[in-house]
Amino acid sequence: MKGLIHIYCGEGKGKTSAAVGQAVRSAGVGFSVVFVQFLKSGDSGELLSLAHVPGVQMIPCERCFGFFWNMGEEEKREAKEIYGELFEKAWERAAREAEERDTLLVMDEAIAACRHGFIEKDRLLVCLKEKAERLEVVMTGRDPQEELIQAADYVSEIKKVKHPFDRGIAARKGIEY
Fold it and tell me: Looking at CB atoms within 10 Å, which of 22, 104, 126, 132 has the fewest?
């Protein structure tokens, strides 16, 4: 199988859910799945569920920094180092897996991590261009840069029409995370 590149983007709820669905589908037919999240706490319901799916390898982030707009300059420097290493670890593991079998790499919130400079855009683009034949890549996040859109084979935008957050209802465990 020739692996392709997917982007799930937009303001709407469901980008991560779509990526998790793709991970479950791929694992279900025997793919190796590598799943990594950036800019999230690592304790969401989807991660707890995926940990029980055979064939899915979770790569945890060792530290949560919270929202970008709440980070100080020192935290941003630390986040760039940690997220950069996390990206390299996930990419290397997925590339190794793709030498042997069809592999899916899901990088949840990689688009935001790239937009904020935590993942080097040029490095990401080189990896995407030179990816293994049997490696399928899914990236999620808002506002993908044009170069990422051009590198992708699929770009699916999830549009928010209405959301409870607009009425002051906070994210709910088991529903939004």
Answer: 126
